[in-house]
Amino acid sequence: EVQVDELQRLLAGMEKEHRSLLLKMKEGEAELARLRSVEGDKLAEQDRSAQLEKEVAMLREKIHHLDDMLKSQQRKVRQMIEQLQNSKTVIQAKDAVIQELKERVAYLEAENLEMHDRIEHLIEKQVSRGGHSSRARSKSEYVSRYVGSRGARPPARLRSRFI
């Protein structure tokens, strides 16, 4: 009987230990499941993180490419502005030359008119030999007559020659 009691007590202790071990096993399995879930989440996060890193690298490459394109376009714009400024300077210089040539033409046409009148006057003198006197016009009269009809003025340096 003592042995049976002893065996029952051992059996009860073993059952208690069995329940305790089952409880610990269930807790361990729950912890393992939780860790696996966390591990799965970490793997998912790592995958997402790797994907985001790839996207960031791709965006950086695109930004670098766009920066290069922008710099290229800025260089082209600067070159175009420089060409326009150079063209404007050339056009202004040519306009100045054209204006000077117009003024020289006006002066020469006025001289030409004066020469024609002098020739007419000399011919008239030879034909009439003292019949009536017509006076020769000055260069300034011809220039003002020419300028009045053309609307142009000879340059100051040319006007001073015949005024």
TrEMBL record:
Entry coiled-coil feature ranges: 4-118
Region Disordered: start-end pairs: 126-154
Claim: Coiled coil is one of the keywords in the record: yes
Source organism superkingdom: Eukaryota
InterPro entries: Tuftelin_GRINL1A/MYZAP/CCD68
Entry keyword set: Coiled coil
A single GO BP: intracellular signal transduction
GO cellular component: I band
Database matches in PANTHER family: GDOWN1, TUFTELIN
Name under which the protein is recorded: TUFT1 protein
Name of the gene: Tuft1
